[in-house]
Amino acid sequence: MPIVTGKNQRWRVLGAHAFLIVLLIVTLFPLAAVISISLRPGNFANGSLIPREISLEHWKLALGFAVTTPDGIVIQPPFPVLRWLWNSIKVATIASALIVAFSTTAAYAFARLKFAFKMPILNSMLLLQMFPPVLALVAIYAIFETIGNYVPALGLETHGGLIVAYLGGVATHVWTIRGYFETIPVEIEECAKVDGASHFQAFFRVLLPMAVPILMVVFVLAFVGTIIEYPVASILLREESNLTLAVGSKYYLADQKYLWGDFAAAAVLSGLPITVVFLAAQRWIVSGLTAGGVKE
Amino acid sequence: MKTFDWKRAAGAGVAALAAIAGLWLVAAIYSAGQTMLALGALALLAAGLHVYASRAAIAWRYLFPGVVGMLLFVAFPLVYTMWIGFTNYSSTHLLSQARVKAYLLEQTVPDEEHSLEFTLHPEGDGLRLVLAPYDAASGTQRFVSAPLKLKGDKAATAAMSALPADLALTPALSTRDALAHRAALMALKLELPDHHVLGYAGVHEFGPSAAVWHENADGSLLRLDDRKTYWPDTSEGFYKAADGDRLQPGFKVAVGFANYARMLADQEFRGPFVSIFAWTVVFAALSVAFSLAVGCTLAVLLNWEGLRFRTLYRTLLFLPYAVPGFISILVFKGLFNQNFGEINAILDAVFGIKPAWFADPMLARAMMLVVNTWLGYPYFLVLCTGLLKAIPVDLYEASAIAGARPLTNFFRITAPLIVKPLSPLIISAFAFNFNNFVLVSLLTNGRPDFLNTKIPAGTTDILVSYTYRIAFLDSGQNFGLAAAISTVIFFLVAMLSFANLRVAARNARK
After folding, report:
1. In angstroms, rounded to a whole number, what is the distance separating the alpha carbons of residues A133 and A213?
2. How many Å apart are CA A289 and CA B458, to the nearest integer?
3. Using a CB-CB distance cutoff of 8 angstroms, which residues of chain B are in contact with residue A137?
4. DSSP 3-state assignment of B198?
5. Is the previous residue joined to B448 through a cis bond, with omega within 30 degrees of 0?
6. Which of A146, A207, B245, B340 has the most CB atoms less than 10 A away?
7. Please, which residues have CB within 8 angstroms of residue A280's CB and are 6 or more apart in sequence?
8. Domains plus CATH for chain B?
9. Are the Cβ atoms of A136 and B77 closer than 8 angstroms?
10. Helices B35-53, B58-70: crossing angle, 10 deg rounding
């Protein structure tokens, strides 16, 4: 950087700090507010942003315990938040594991095997991925309604159906893993084949152990992607006990039943783990962001 | 090798089992009358068996699951949506014509002329049911059942036999006591010795039921009580009588471009549709512009080595991106609440105003942009930071020698160098916000609505959320119309993707 420093450098630094601090306050205000609100008694704003008295009623309700108010009324937890969190984690884990399996095998074929129409297939998969499922919700709903007539475990209102619906989104992951496979020298697998390994053994025993880091990355990416998915889950799941967090959370802020404090506790409880996973995976997510635009 | 053979046998066994299970499913689908679906499933099954059983297609063994997943859940829904756009599929036209006909032909009414009066006579812990004609004119033959346990409402059939003259019956239950068994009686069918089956037809009677409809040879339906004929109208999707009377429910038929014609020609529909379209474009463009402006300014600022705590700032400023969207959007929904929200509490305390963020269209739109900028700027912060690192430092050294000020540096050096690699990402961000369903659905749900529209439409709705509303929320679940709008969006997205690829390719060439 240039070392020529003007006279007004100090003022500029101060100005920049002031600007950044104001922006930080604006940015972090919602996150700080929601934590404060979760600790504040009652479901309505009562003036102070920093709670005067700390109350754990919302946290107890979020964790599924009934709360007794001072005047003896027992409040039952309004929604099964932990159940929703469990549903979300279950669906996201199974779906991501399957997505990793499918995209790894497909990436192997694209990176190592010869077959007809290789690049056209890969390119059309990437092109298809540009149409988000939210555009085809009507069709997806109709498809799963039909599937449910013949295979009830994969129909509407089932987590099996939701998992299956998420399995279409493999193209970008195939692309990522293929890129990684291509950095691994093919000679190692060829040596294994010379020693008598079959195709599948060369893939499963030789290539995969070397690709574990990228598989972890893809798993985390798929996990975060499915756990925050809202549109498809919102049409496939309607029953309260079946919902995922992304679908269920909005019911706290319904017009007829506005549970602001309870929502805040549930949001912190369920948002925190996802945020931590996201921050931990930040590096890879960021490199994935740029991959689509500036490829090769 | 022995183990090898064993493995092959196991593989063949698994393949055979999969084939049997698959064929069973195909048969089930076919017998339900879904011929096209059965053919599709059969083709998929055949392809799968071919890939995994033959030795020819090694590569496809690896490709098959991923490619099938994409075809079934990404490609097929797109094609199917386009097809639905050409039909009248909706809550009033839910079933196929065959299913509607079957539904109508199954309708029955009790046949009062041949009804028999029943009485219940307790015996042991059961009840004997006795059927007798109402009057002597319709015969004197009486029937009796074995003692029945009338419990629950499970469907059951009881055999009736002629009442023997020597059977001593206990006194009949009163009407009130008999009514207590109504649920069980309604589920009960009585089979007479001549195999006629009677069903519950009223508080005192069991009777045969008669079909309401008769199918004529030409496919039309004849209503038996008033001899009125209804013909299937395959352009409107209804059974229709000569006088224009329509039967509910209607059935699914292709309607050509009717849904598209509605978008362009129907005055009442076109008004809100055009304003929603315009807002979608404005919303997507402004969201990208604001996020880009904030994100890039921050990136440039944080790239300045004279500033301390840069990593801390960067980490904290990245936070909005790490919080799951569905949570932060709902947090904003609560914070902006007119009466209970913290934002209005602050505004009220400082300026004495309480804006109606969710009731005033312009304020609601402004709120959407604020929230979306909050959600979107970290993306551009990260992108711009990466791109700034790639700019050679000596350019700034040269400009410093020439005495350039920071703004000049930005507009003459930084901006021109990052705009090119940014442009495809700006286009995809635009496409993303064009379809930013989650934000609209969770924040405003499209409200406040336009007044006086036939189909509810919101001033903050964007095209996808409007489509969702038409399909799944109010206004009669018009899947066909929703799918037609979706198809229009497909083409817009395709154009954006095409522009994206062109720009990326041009950047790569230069």
Report:
1. 29
2. 32
3. 467-468, 471-472, 486
4. strand
5. yes
6. A207
7. A220
8. 6-84 (1.20.58.370), 97-105+212-240 (no CATH), 108-211 (2.40.430.10), 263-509 (1.10.3720.10)
9. yes
10. 150
DSSP code string of B86-149: TB--BTTB-B-HHHHHHHHHT-EEE-GGG-EEEEEEEETTEEEEEEE-SSGGG----EEEPPB-
Q: Tokens 């929320």, residue?
A: B473
Task: Test A275 with B324 for CB contact under 8 angstroms.
Answer: yes
Our CA-based measurement puts residue A11 at a distance from the nearest CA of chain B, in whole angstroms, of 12
| B56 touching chain A per CB within 8 A | no
Expressed in percent and rounded to 5, the helix, strand and coil fractions of chain B are 60, 15, 30
Contacts of B504 in chain A (CB under 8 A): 293-295
Q: Cis bond leading into B406, ω under 30°?
A: no
Indicate if the alpha-carbon torsion angle A156, A159, A164, A169 is positive or negative.
positive
CB-based contact A230 B341, cutoff 8 Å: no
Strand B228-233 relative to strand B238-241, pairing: antiparallel
User: Taking CB atoms and an 8 Å limit, are B306 and A12 in contact across chains?
Assistant: yes
pLDDT digits (tens, 9 = 90+) for B309-356: 888 888 888 888 888 889 999 999 989 988 888 888 888 888 988 889
DSSP secondary structure letter of residue B359: T
Q: Where are the beta strands (DSSP E) in B146-293?
A: 156-162, 188-191, 197-200, 205-207, 209-211, 213-215, 221-223, 228-233, 238-241, 246-247
Question: Which token pair is B373?
Answer: 């900028």
Parallel/antiparallel/unpaired status of strands B205-207 and B209-211 = unpaired
Please determine, for the modelled complex, whether the ipTM score is greater than 0.85: yes
Q: Do A9 and B306 touch (CB under 8 A)?
A: yes
pLDDT of A294 over the 60 cut: no
Distances (CA, A) of B253 to A165, B85, B103, B387: 27, 11, 17, 53
CA distance A42 to B385: 43
B1 inside 8 A of chain A by CB: no
Going along B235-295, which residue ranges are E strands?
238-241, 246-247
The pLDDT tens digits along chain B (510 residues) read 445 567 777 777 888 888 888 888 888 888 776 777 788 888 888 888 888 877 767 788 888 888 888 888 888 889 999 998 998 888 888 888 888 888 888 887 777 777 788 888 888 788 888 888 877 666 677 888 888 877 777 777 888 888 887 777 788 888 888 888 888 888 888 888 877 788 887 788 888 877 788 888 887 888 877 888 888 888 888 888 888 788 878 888 888 888 888 888 888 788 888 899 999 999 999 999 999 999 999 998 888 877 888 888 888 888 888 888 899 999 999 899 888 888 888 888 889 888 899 999 999 999 999 999 999 999 899 888 888 888 888 888 888 888 887 788 888 888 888 888 888 888 889 989 999 999 999 999 888 888 877 778 889 999 999 888 888 876 668 888 889 989 998 998 888 888 888 888 888 776
- The two three-digit tokens of residue B98, written as one number: 């065959």
Q: How far is B308 from chain A (nearest CA, A)?
A: 9
Tell me the two tokens of residue A55: 């109350």
Q: Using the 8-state DSSP alphabet, how is residue A258 labeled?
A: B
The residues with which B197 forms a beta bridge, in sequence order, are B191
Q: Does B84 touch chain A (CB under 8 A)?
A: yes
The reply to whether B508 touches chain A by the CB within 8 Å rule is yes
- What is d(CA B486, CA B83) in angstroms, rounded to the nearest whole number? 11
Three-state DSSP class for residue B247: strand
